[in-house]
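Table S2 (continued). Query chain:
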Amino acid sequence: GRDTRDIATDTEWLTALDLFGMVTSRAVLLDTMTIEANLALPFTLSIDPVPEEIRRAVADLADEVGLGRERLSAAVQSLTPADRVRLHLARALAVTPQVLVLEHVTASLTPADATARLRLMLDLVPGQAGRSVADPYYGAADGFAVTWGDVDAVAAALVAEFAASSG
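Corresponding output:
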């Protein structure tokens, strides 16, 4: 890690921020623009039209989170709440973060969609693909404790993997 007090320039600060991907409904989506344009924003401000090299990266991201490249021309306003979460996730992953922060990602979803989104996010963690997950807000009475245990175990595994690769 690096002490943020040692960051001297705006460029260094922006580079440090790219270490984090934030999945939150508070991140602005441009509802009247296409999914493609919204996914291009982490890469470039030139979104009308989206440059060809960026289009390839955007299509890959859409596929990775289950939006599908065939839907890239659709307006964001047409997305379901579950697909809006997928779009937020894709934008957070675009910068290839070292840390992915999830802020209430299931709050606006149905129980089935919430569990599916949590499973999708867990699938992105190395070695966790296909693992089932309980949603703390829609699961059984012990749902939060079960989910926290899952999250804690995955976090510990990632920390251990990072420590092993750093030292």
